[in-house]
């Protein structure tokens, strides 16, 4: 009864979704493309046999990339169906496609849209990345006999409490064929939510290899910068303003290092540029750099490009972890570690609690209680090249020590298919 009521509510909300997509398409045209797919309507004739991976946004798609590569080794001739919920995720996912693969939008969570999606593609298996639990999507797969797994699965304590308050979610978790958790703590919370945890495999993002050309270029630019470069990586709304206010009040801190801000969401690039100017600083945007960052002190650099995080981490001597200085749970620090870029993280890292704790223990990350302390720590490290090098070496060692999740997850999925749960 609750599931049917939920289905009616999501069906009634479809006009709101269409309006939201139209609004977002103004700034990000990708949201205006292939809109009928959101509602389970497709142009090609129905097909079958797909290995379906759902990666909602950019971070999940990057994690999916290493899993897809491992699956191709395990399942020669695999036909990949890749679905997304955001324009940045879909743009990143396009790089993973080979001849014969397909991309589509995640269907809106109504009985009709999800039922049409499953009938259209008839997947051999569905792989939901990290946290993607949608009651009607899971129910439609259950009815069609499509085994679903939650890969690279994580669940914070806050999210567990939310799931336990929503009666629809425990049955959805329980309908999964398997959940492969990142950590033992995630596994315990997932079991409490009702999920059939079948393994604790680690975080797929440790297996991602940074773009070597970008990393080398960034390091070359860093060597030529003449002053330590500090990256605010994947900054979130409110964090940039707080940092800029501190720098405005302390002009010496503003020029002691080269500040580089890379916002988490591309639709905020222009707003952050205006924010920098409003605090009295010149701004030099990556889109205008040409072959190298601008010389001279005083301007705040703004990373307004997609797909270049390896370049930014290579360019940086250290990074502030976006999302950790507001109660947002923190962004992923694993890519920074793989690039040898030590991280200063704020008090809010509940989205990646174990990775943050392990990075701190390894010397790859340093906890600070807020941006004011972060700025003071930056100034101390800027004057201590040996400490920065030690932290960089620790970051690389930390990343190397935690690889292997992709192979373990791919092996488990291949074994699931071998069981004959779906021909």
TrEMBL record:
<comment type="pathway">
    <text>Bacterial outer membrane biogenesis; LPS core biosynthesis.</text>
</comment>
<keyword id="KW-0808">Transferase</keyword>
<keyword id="KW-0472">Membrane</keyword>
<comment type="function">
    <text>Involved in lipopolysaccharide (LPS) biosynthesis. Catalyzes the transfer of 3-deoxy-D-manno-octulosonate (Kdo) residue(s) from CMP-Kdo to lipid IV(A), the tetraacyldisaccharide-1,4'-bisphosphate precursor of lipid A.</text>
</comment>
<feature type="domain" description="3-deoxy-D-manno-octulosonic-acid transferase N-terminal">
    <location>
        <begin position="34"/>
        <end position="208"/>
    </location>
</feature>
<comment type="similarity">
    <text>Belongs to the glycosyltransferase group 1 family.</text>
</comment>
<keyword id="KW-0448">Lipopolysaccharide biosynthesis</keyword>
<dbReference type="InterPro" id="IPR038107">
    <property type="entry name" value="Glycos_transf_N_sf"/>
</dbReference>
<protein>
    <recommendedName>
        <fullName>3-deoxy-D-manno-octulosonic acid transferase</fullName>
        <ecNumber>2.4.99.12</ecNumber>
    </recommendedName>
</protein>
<dbReference type="Pfam" id="PF04413">
    <property type="entry name" value="Glycos_transf_N"/>
</dbReference>
<dbReference type="GO" id="GO:0016740">
    <property type="term" value="F:transferase activity"/>
</dbReference>
<dbReference type="InterPro" id="IPR007507">
    <property type="entry name" value="Glycos_transf_N"/>
</dbReference>
<keyword id="KW-1003">Cell membrane</keyword>
<dbReference type="InterPro" id="IPR039901">
    <property type="entry name" value="Kdotransferase"/>
</dbReference>
